[in-house]
Amino acid sequence: MTAQHPGSSPAHHTGAIEVVEEAVARASHAILHTAEIAFALPEPAQSRWHRAGVGPRGERIFDVVSGLVLLLFVVGWTWSIVMARNASEDGDVSDATASISSGLTDPDAPSAAFMTNAMLSALTPLRGTSGKLRAQVEQPGAVVDTTADGSAIRVATGADTGIAAAPRRPGIWNVLVKVGAALQPVTDFNLITLHPFDEKQRGRIGGYFVGSWPGEKSRNVRPGYAHPSGFIEVTPENEDVQVSEHFRLRDFLTHDQPNVWPKYLVLEMKLVDKLELVLADLASRGYDVSGVHVMSGFRTPQYNVSGGDPRGRAALSRHMYGDASDIFIDDEHDGQMDDLNHDGRINIRDAQVILAAVDRVERDHPELIGGAGVYVASGGHGPFIHIDTRGFRARWVGTGDD
């Protein structure tokens, strides 16, 4: 961000004062003209037809009001433009104000069409391979990318608009695209900053119980099994924030502690990207995937050990690391997998339809390779598929929850 300075050069103030004086002179002329109209004597009526419509007194009132409105508009805009230019040279103006001033006074300011193209170009890498991501997760203070075409991603933080780094406090932030001095808000993409892992004390973050990760304090941890770097804070106000076209934050929450808020979530956007690619593959083959349901997303370590029905859960479940989900397609909204293979039955073969899509996605995008296991109906749920991005291929058939 540009540093603020307490003062400015005398030459700069002189130029600004001259502009204001010119505006005031024009305003004074307008006032005198308005006064002449207001106090002018009405013309004597030439005939009864002359008196039809608005009378002389009404005409004078209309002229006075119109003149005052025009006067206020001219003075207000002149003053705003001068102050914006004055402040921008002193470094006291936000990027949003500068962009408005630039758009009014700079003939070379980017057009609306150019800004739209720049916005699309800037966001393309952030939307993932699927093109359907709507959020980026970063550590507080992380540098926000600048694109190859010269446009840049900026973050709106209330009073500070257009900063080039992720805010240093956790939260969910609006994103803007900056081209030159112009800013374009992005309505369908957010930057999410994390609570650092060391905020967890004695297995809790605030009042939310998460437990401890296997080998959390060990120096010799298997690759891919280090504890997460931080947590997304989820509240009743932000739980419906879209992280992609089909998924929201609340879809991935651990299913426990229903009355404890805020909750905390670990979520790898690589997983969300892979899930969207799998859904896109299915949709391209005629399947309706709008009813996709996340049966289990992130699991805190304490829940993985003892929450719900822990039978079949791996001690090193990928769910604890935010890169695994159990899903099924439920377009009929009956709480279980649809008959995807159209054989008149709901069974593991329907989960295998999704598995085939996972195989195709991993073949085309090896950087997203991971585990996939199909599960039969068990207990209170129907068949489903586990999908993760562990970094190497794994396949299995399961009978429990994981």
Structure write-up:
The protein is of the alpha+beta class. Helix content is 32%, strand content 19%. Mean pLDDT is 80; it is low at 1-17, 47-52 and 87-105. It is built from seven helices and 15 strands. The longest helix is centred in the first third of the chain and has 35 residues, at 56-90. The radius of gyration is 31 Å and the shape is globular. The chain starts with 9 loop residues before the first helix and ends with a strand. The strands form four sheets. A five-stranded mixed beta sheet has the order 1-5-4-2-3. The chain has a five-stranded mixed beta sheet with strand order 11-12-14-13-15, with helices on one face. The chain has three domains: 10-43 and 53-93; 112-193, no CATH class; 197-216 and 227-398, Muramoyl-pentapeptide Carboxypeptidase, domain 2.
